[in-house]
Amino acid sequence: MLKAFVIGLLLVLAITVHVSAQTKDSAAGVATDSVTPPPPIDTAKKVSFWKKMAYPNPKVAMICSAVIPGLGQAYNHKYWKIPIVYVGLGAMAYFIYTNQQQYHQFITALKDSTQPLNKIYTKTDLVNGENFYARYRNLSIIGAAFIYMLQIVDANVDAQMHTFDVSDNLSFHFTPNLVPTSTGSYTFEPGFTFIKRF
Fold first, then answer.
1. What is the mean pLDDT of residues 14-27?
2. Could you tell me if 91 and 118 are in contact, meaning their C-beta atoms sit under 8 angstroms apart?
3. What whole-number percentage of the chain has pLDDT above 70?
4. 155 Cβ partners below 8 Å, 6+ apart?
5. Measured between alpha carbons, how far is 148 from 170 in angstroms, rounded to an integer?
6. How far, in Å, CA of 92 to CA of 143, rounded?
7. Cα dihedral across residues 107, 111, 117, 121: positive or negative
8. How far is 145 from 171, CA to CA, in rounded Å?
9. If pLDDT is split at 50, 70 and 90, which confidence band does 127 have?
10. Which of 91, 152, 156, 185 would disulfide-bridge 65, Cβ 3.0–4.6 Å?
11. Nearest alpha carbon to residue 73 among 162, 151, 161
12. Does the bond joining 58 to the residue before it have cis omega, within 30 degrees of 0?
């Protein structure tokens, strides 16, 4: 009895969905015949916009790196630099966290004489330890800020230098050569020639 009820319910749902789908299709067919087509997209505006925003744009690269570290390097297609950025920032975050933890332990031991560090260190050692970890925590914060700023500058400079020619045709090098002597005779002495290629 229950099986027959479930099968009947499924059949009713299937027929209802089929009928509603047919009415939507027919209504859509009538609607599309009476509606005028949309105007064509003006591609000239898009082309002129992208010409103004030539790739890579140093400002865009700099903003990307400022918002998310490493995004400017991804924008410049220098993907190998992204792990370097995150390893540097991660190392600084680790040092900030560990130095802050140690600093907190030493300052708590100075305030509360029942702390375990009071059994190991004297009060002078506790003060020195507090100053030591506070100093290295602050240096780690400065290091993290430096890496953050450096990756922004790197993204900007990399975008600016994208079109700079660094092929082997641009080079300065010395080659050994025989140089005529100043006496005017057919004598030569060894020397070097400076070659500059453009």
1. 51
2. no
3. 61
4. 61, 62, 64, 65, 72, 73, 75, 76
5. 33
6. 7
7. positive
8. 37
9. very high
10. 152
11. 151
12. no
What is the Cα–Cα distance from 55 to 84, expressed in whole angstroms? 24
Q: Are 181 and 187 in contact (CB under 8 A)?
A: yes
Query: What is the C-alpha separation between 101 and 121, in angstroms, rounded?
Result: 17
Instruction: Over range 116-144, report the average pLDDT.
Output: 94
DSSP, res 176: E
**Nearest to 92, CA basis, from 167, 50, 134, 143:** 143
What pLDDT shows up at residue 61? 93
Which residue reads 């992208």 in tokens? 50
Does the predicted model carry a pTM greater than 0.90?
Answer: no
Containing H/E element for 196? strand 188-197
Joined tokens for residue 174: 């010395």
C-alpha distances (whole Å) from 72 to each of 34, 60, 82, 148, 154 are 49, 8, 9, 12, 9
Average pLDDT, the chain: 78
Higher pLDDT, 18 or 102: 102
